[in-house]
């Protein structure tokens, strides 16, 4: 898709003018500490900003740096993560902290390629971390950025692939201050979500999140909360879900396989 430099300039002006007036004050934007940025980006992967705002300060207070998080028990980390959902992310954060402290002397490498190799971090998150922590001119797409570019440049198209958006994201990138530009894009995307029908529905990558009530995610969360209180026998866990023992056994085995919990002689613990 060929877009003129004039159209790109007009687009950047629209985004910039909105941001000047409506810039959000968020705690992870008040720092360039790589550790704090990693924590915020992992939290924001699958959790709404409002919820992250509630959990982020307490998590940083309890685990203020990579070393503190690496040395903490998984149980303590998951206890602090409670309420965020997708608890594997808490485990991934601890694993990342262990890697950074053991292999990089506690200093996050300023390389998207290296960060991309860490547990629970894909290419987009690796690039966002390096943009926000190191002001690098990385190119990435997340939900709000996707919404902005589809809305402005693909008004009449369906099944739009991210591969079609990436050249535009790169063309519009403010290479002198990519950190602030991405903040502006995300804030503008949040605004668009309130005033237009979601452009992301026209993305090839759009998927409606499955209902939480009655889902495997709900059961995983309930099992984890129970185990944060005390060790439980496998039998007692299965009995607490009358009529769903096969399903719960499968979920429990998944959690064991992921290293979220462990089983020893029929007893399950974190």
* Strand line-up of the largest beta sheet: 1-3-2
Q: What gross morphology would you assign?
A: globular
Helix content: 55-70%
Number of domains: 3
Task: Please compute the radius of gyration using only Cα atoms.
Answer: 21 Å
Report the sheet-strand fraction: under 5%
Number of strand elements? 3
Mean of residue pLDDT values: 95
CATH architecture of the largest domain: Orthogonal Bundle
How far apart the termini lie comes to 51 Å
Q: State the low-pLDDT regions, or none.
A: none
Tell me the major beta sheet.
3 strands, antiparallel
- SS content category: mainly alpha
The SSE order reads HHHHHHHHHHHHEHHEE
CATH class of the largest domain: Mainly Alpha
Number of helices: 14
**CATH topology group of the largest domain:** Endonuclease III, domain 1
Question: Brief overview, please?
Answer:
The chain has 270 residues and is an all-alpha fold.
Explain this structure.
With about 270 residues, this protein is an all-alpha fold. The protein has three domains: about 5-25 and about 140-200; about 35-135, Orthogonal Bundle (Endonuclease III, domain 1), CATH 1.10.340; about 215-270. The chain contains 14 helices and three strands. The chain has helices at about 5-20, 35-45, 50-60, 65-70, 75-80, 90-105, 110-115, 125-135, 145-155, 160-170, 180-195, 215-230, 235-240, 245-260, and strands at about 230-235, 260-265, 265-270. It has a three-stranded antiparallel sheet with strand order 1-3-2. The longest helix is centred in the N-terminal third of the chain and has 18 residues, at about 5-20.
């Amino acid at each position: 898709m060929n877009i003129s430099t004039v159209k790109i300039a007009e687009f950047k002006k629209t985004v910039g003018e909105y941001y000047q007036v409506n810039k959000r004050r968020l705690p992870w934007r008040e720092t360039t500490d790589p550790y704090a940025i990693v924590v915020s980006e992992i939290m924001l992967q699958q959790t709404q900003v409002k919820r992250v705002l509630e959990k982020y300060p307490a998590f940083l207070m309890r685990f203020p740096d990579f070393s503190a998080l690496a040395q903490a028990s998984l149980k303590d980390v998951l206890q602090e993560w409670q309420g965020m959902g997708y608890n594997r992310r808490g485990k991934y954060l601890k694993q990342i902290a262990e890697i950074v402290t053991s292999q990089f002397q506690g200093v996050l490498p300023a390389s998207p390629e290296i960060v991309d190799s860490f547990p629970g971090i894909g290419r987009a998150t690796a690039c966002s971390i390096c943009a926000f922590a190191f002001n690098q001119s990385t190119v990435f797409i997340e939900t709000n950025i996707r919404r902005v570019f589809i809305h402005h440049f693909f008004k009449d198209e369906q099944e739009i692939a991210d591969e079609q958006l990436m050249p535009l994201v790169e063309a519009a990138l403010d290479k002198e201050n990519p950190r602030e530009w991405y903040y502006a894009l995300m804030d503008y995307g949040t605004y668009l979500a309130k005033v237009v029908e979601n452009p992301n529905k026209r993305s090839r990558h759009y998927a409606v999140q499955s209902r939480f009530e009655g889902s495997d995610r709900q059961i995983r969360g309930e099992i984890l909360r129970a185990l944060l209180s005390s060790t439980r026998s496998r039998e007692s866990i299965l009995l607490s879900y009358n009529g769903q023992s096969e399903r719960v056994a499968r979920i429990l085995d998944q959690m064991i396989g992921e290293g979220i919990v462990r089983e020893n002689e029929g007893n399950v613990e974190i």
